[in-house]
Write a structure and sequence with these properties.
Helix content is 42%, strand content 21%. The protein is built from 12 helices and 10 strands.
Length: 322
């Protein structure tokens, strides 16, 4: 199988499997898929951002066949990690390093302790959110350096791995919340400190409509303050609508542009929402202690406000935007 066929096979497996893989096992699953094309003994997949002085700030990480102590020890040698610094200077380019490279002399003890003889590292930074993701593959055998073909394959496979991971994380977040992603909504995951962990492509672009000078990974103040409350909430800014939903230690943050549906009065929105659920005028009237005629009048007003011709159209708009 040639390199292009191998890449196509891996990409197809990743994109087909990502939505259904459990979050907690996704990275190991993805690494096993990658191993069918590039051999390695252990690895790390980290997400975070670079500090002002260029050092890695890790938000989350997943180790493959390495002990958790590796990351505890890494804090003491991070400023000497020249492989990370080189990758940061060349985002999207896979970098190969030998553990006996003279540039790594300051961390010889560390790489010996964890059996890291050869490194294949790839990193990318989102220009708007500032989020970076870094995948480093490690080999323990001194006589098995990574080849140029393997470096090129990993460089080509990296975007597919990152996209599959983002899709996996956000799919599971969205499955416990409404509204759905897709359509007008962009989605991201953030912590309660207001720091982004993952973001769909449209999410940073939408934020720039409201805050043209914004760049991540910290959310704009309005959103960061909402995230700090750590509770489910929905609100609007001048141009955007936001919905925040807690999920374990993260928050699903969804946003879209404001639309005609947002001009509905609270009562019109309530009746339109029940209509979208399939209730008729009499059923809604009983729930809200109103007459069917009043419900019909509110729904007619809602349709005029959003230029919907009938109940089916306003129901479709409610499903899309709410």
């Amino acid at each position: 199988m040639n390199a292009l066929a191998k890449l196509s096979s891996l990409a197809l497996a990743l994109h087909r499997g990502a939505p259904s893989q459990p979050v907690e096992s996704f990275v190991d699953w993805a690494f096993e898929a990658l191993k069918q094309h590039v051999h390695f003994d252990s690895a790390i997949w980290a997400a975070g951002h670079a500090s002002a002085d260029g050092l890695p700030v890790v938000h989350s990480y997943w180790l493959h066949r390495q002990p958790a102590q590796l990351m505890a020890d890494y804090a003491g040698i991070a400023r000497h990690d020249v492989v990370f610094l080189e990758s940061l200077r060349q985002p999207g380019v896979s970098v190969v390093a030998d553990s006996r490279d003279g540039r790594l002399v300051a961390i010889y003890d560390y790489i010996d302790r964890y059996g890291i003889e050869h490194v294949l590292s790839t990193l990318d930074v989102d220009p708007l959110s500032g989020l970076l993701q870094d995948i480093a593959l490690w080999r323990a055998a001194r006589d098995r350096p990574f080849t140029e073909d393997e470096r090129c394959f990993m460089q080509a496979a990296f975007p597919h791995l990152i996209e599959a991971c983002t899709r996996n994380r956000l799919t599971h977040l969205v499955n416990v919340s409404t509204p759905r992603t897709g359509g007008p909504w962009g989605a991201a995951a953030a912590d309660r400190a207001g720091v982004l962990h993952y973001a769909e492509g449209d999410f940073p672009r939408l934020l720039r409509q409201e805050w043209p000078d914004w760049s991540g990974p910290v959310l704009p103040p309005l959103l960061a303050e909402a995230a700090a409350r750590g509770e489910a909430q929905r609100f609007a800014s001048e141009r955007l609508v936001f919905k925040l939903t807690p999920f374990h230690d993260l928050l699903l943050v969804q946003t879209r542009e404001r639309a005609a549906i947002d001009r509905l009065t609270p009562r019109e929105r309530e009746i339109a929402a029940y209509t979208a659920q399939g209730l008729n005028h009499k059923e809604i009237a009983r729930l809200l202690d109103l007459s069917p005629a009043t419900v019909r009048n509110h729904l007619a007003a809602a349709c005029r406000r959003v230029q919907a011709r009938n109940k089916a159209q306003i129901a479709a708009l409610m499903h899309l935007y709410h």
